[in-house]
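--- STAGE predict ---
source: upstream dedup step, 1 unique chain passed
mode: sequence only
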Amino acid sequence: MKHKPLIMITNDDGVTAEGIQAITESLRDLGDLIVFAPDGPRSGMSCAITAIQPISYTLIYTTPGLTVYSCTGTPVDCVKLALNEVVERKPDVLVSGINHGGNQALCVHYSGTMGATLEGCVFDIPSVGLSLADYTPDADFSEACRLGKILIKRVLANGLPYGTYLNLNVPNIPKVKGIAVCRQADGHWIKEFDKEEDANGEMLYWLTGEYLNRKPARADDDIQMLDKGYASLVPCLVDVTDHAFMNTLKTWDLNE
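--- STAGE serialize ---
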């Protein structure tokens, strides 16, 4: 008997976050779903793994077509533990999100959402990261669910090349113009900390920051597309080798 597609869902905001609950409900008709996500917020974890203490998982509930677990580890821990110890067959697609807040441009390197997506790709599972550019508690995930579902259906039908994973960011507007395939913006963060003095006179630093695109901005980068009202879709690679520079590097005298 042919199995329904198996969809694994994780995130970095925690298993009870609105974003993961919204995309889970949206994908129910596409196949069997396994949610395996952190037991609380793990934003900014990137590809962090837990190596100096044990982790564990808990079955939250199961119903036909949907099983939900929470895990004490990071988003990448969730993927590793689920695929090594819990999931009985290889998922047809891994979905990470929907993240509360965008993961465009340089954020792809810091994001726990995208760390989990990359890890799914390492396991040779077509993997998609979904993010909504809205940090508010009452964020409306309907457009992110609509566009995410379109993309996931295409990935289920077509697959992805080996070593490629996808980063979809959705602007916080009522009606998105569509999905624009584009490149990662070239920029960096500035003014990255707010500081305050505690009762003992010690300075405390709170991570904040402002993203600054390098000039001139490229017309087809993800930030430009989001500003124009499109969801940005950037294909990413696990292999970070700078192939174009390899031949130049070989001309250096490195063996004196």
